[in-house]
Amino acid sequence: MTALDEIHQFLPCVTPDRWIDEAVKPENLCLLLTDHAHCEKKAASTAMTLMFRYVDRPDLLNKMSRLAREELIHFEQVLAIMQERGMVYDHLSSSRYAAGLRKHVRTSEPGRLIDVLIIGALIEARSCERFAKLAPFLDEQLAKFYRSLLKSESRHYQDYLHLAREYAGEPIDGRIDFFCEVERELIEAEDEEFRFHSGTPV
Predict the structure, then answer these.
(1) In the chain, helix, strand, coil percent, each to 5?
(2) Is the pLDDT of residue 3 over 90?
(3) Is the dihedral of CA 103, 75, 12, 172 positive or negative?
(4) What is the CATH number of the domain that holds 146?
(5) Of the residues 56, 71, 115, 138, which has the fewest C-beta atoms closer than 10 A?
């Protein structure tokens, strides 16, 4: 089984074709890349936050340190592609996706950590799935770049899920199923705002 096969098994649904149709419109390319860059920066920030909050967990520190570095490299790569194409990177409002997942995070430990790690796994897995689904419809440069991200993004998903299971000290399949169902609703529900992790376009 490939890493992408594993991700498809993990995710509760596939990206709707209507989202792909919207994403590949030439007039949305700058928006797509801008939000992609923001997502990479936020992913690095999330990893750093975990490193500062959980300083007593060596496995987490090592995995999140590597993840943060890789996400920042991806951020720089997206910026470079945008600059080559004369696109301007600017502020952008966040999609409802991450906030919709995080509003269910428990407030007490270790539940809080476990939930944040599960959400991290879902976000990385969804990113990977969308990179793969978008690539065939993009120009050669972008298709090659998005395919190049699949290996690291799939490893990030695995790292988050491994840490969640390791630190839980008990089975977490029920909690994973809960967040998967929340994720399904966010992806399949109609969404008026187009973003990299937005739902089905209206």
Answers:
(1) 75, 0, 25
(2) no
(3) negative
(4) 1.20.1260.10
(5) 56
